[in-house]
Amino acid sequence: xxxxxxxxxxxxxxxxxxxxxxxxxxxxxxxxxxxxxxxxxxxxxxxxxxxxxxxxxxxxxxxxxxxxxxxxxxxxxxxxxxxxxxxxxxxxxxxxxxxxxxxxxxxxxxxxxxxxxxxxxxxxxxxxxxxxxxxxxxxxxxxxxxxxxxxxxxxxxxxxxxxxxxxxxxxxxxxxxxxxxxxxxxxxxxxxxxxxxxxxxxxxxxxxxxxxxxxxxxxxxxxxxxxxxxxxxxxxxxxxxxxxxxxxxxxxxxxxxxxxxxxxxxxxxxxxxxxxxxxxxxxxxxxxxxxxxxxxxxxxxxxxxxxxxxxxxxxxxxxxxxxxxxxxxxxxxxxxxxxxxxxxxxxxxxxxxxxxxxxxxxxxxxxxxxxxxxxxxxxxxxxxxxxxxxxxxxxxxxxxxxxxxxxxxxxxxxxxxxxxxxxxxxxxxxx
Length: 431
Ligand code: CMC
Known about the structure:
- It is built from 17 helices and six strands.
- The chain has helices at 36-40, 85-94, 100-112, 118-123, 133-147, 157-183, 196-205, 216-228, 236-246, 251-262, 270-282, 288-296, 317-332, 338-351, 354-358, 366-376, 383-403, and strands at residues 7-12, 15-22, 30-31, 60-63, 68-71, 74-75.
- Helix 5 (133-147) runs antiparallel to helix 10.
- The chain has 431 residues and is mainly alpha-helical.
- The radius of gyration is 23 Å and the shape is globular.
- The model has no long low-confidence stretch (mean pLDDT 96).
- Bound molecules: carboxymethyl coenzyme *A (CMC).
- The site of carboxymethyl coenzyme *A has 19 residues, from loops.
């Protein structure tokens, strides 16, 4: 029995309305306003949806106060020791950990679908060599719909799994091909003998006469990078995927739209901004102290990239893990990167500065991920692409959750209109 009320009372113009309060298994309760306009003739105003739960979801739980992130109930820290991105992808999409047989079957499906249709491959030749890889990724994921039209309407489990496997497998090939084109290097075909991340590294970095040698520590680190990005409940790109999917758009179109949202520097594009910021400090363009000053200056649009989060008011648990992995990988590769030292210094300055302390701004996932990807060999313009590869299972899982929900309705928010009242049309010579 709960002593908490399950109703909220709203009084408008002296009239009383009772609104149900709903609760999930964890997290804050939510006032259900779905019938508010119908009953009271008013809407609610929440422009960036910062205080609006847009769905019920069983996939990911975040406690931003405590810095907790769980996939299907499992804390992300538990994936660190034996990181297997394919297993986590299956967990997110299908709701439980796969048994050995299911994991093998899904891995085989990924292997069977790693090639791109020759028609799709030919499209790379028409794209400008210096095209942004995120634009290529979004366009090519959408174009998968041209070559896999049997999945434009998915109504059964088997088709869904087949479509998910195509996306998760081909995204690596698309990403690697865009990089190879950028470098003027020949495309390297996937190697079916290699595991998911090793195969991606092979397509990125092998050359025809020399196979890239995958170090276990690097393979683990990449698995972990992908796992830590794999889902993050209702963030901007995932919400985009759900909104597009709510119109019954296909899974390729919905994921392509999510890539576009992710590209923004306030979202997945922040990992690029972080490294560019660190490079600027390293090159003497500004000092770490100036960087902090600029981030605090409200007349300057500059932000301390890789810091702050809509939900976390504590250290982002993903950043905590990535910081440790950075140390491990740098030690293994016997690498030194001055950017890592600058990042540590910036973090120290920010975490002892009243501006950041008062606002509870901590490093987020993007603060250390770029430095790690750079150590593995990824160029800066591929960082957000790597984020997208990691996030793809999350988008697919969230798309599916909504797709199979019998109560799914098209997402169609309202607005507070602030334009002109009814105005007369003026013919052109009277204006
Ligand atoms: N640098 C300077 N000031 C900041 C920063 C920052 N990185 N982040 C937040 N603030 C300020 C913000 O200006 C506001 O100040 P005031 O109260 O004086 O108006 C205050 O802190 C509270 O901001 P908020 O409401 O928590 O921020 P938000 O929820 O609107 O935005 C954010 C969240 C992630 C877009 C923002 O923190 C930001 O721009 N960070 C830098 C970009 C970044 O690292 N993005 C990656 C996010 S994590 C991965 C992902 O989701 O893609």
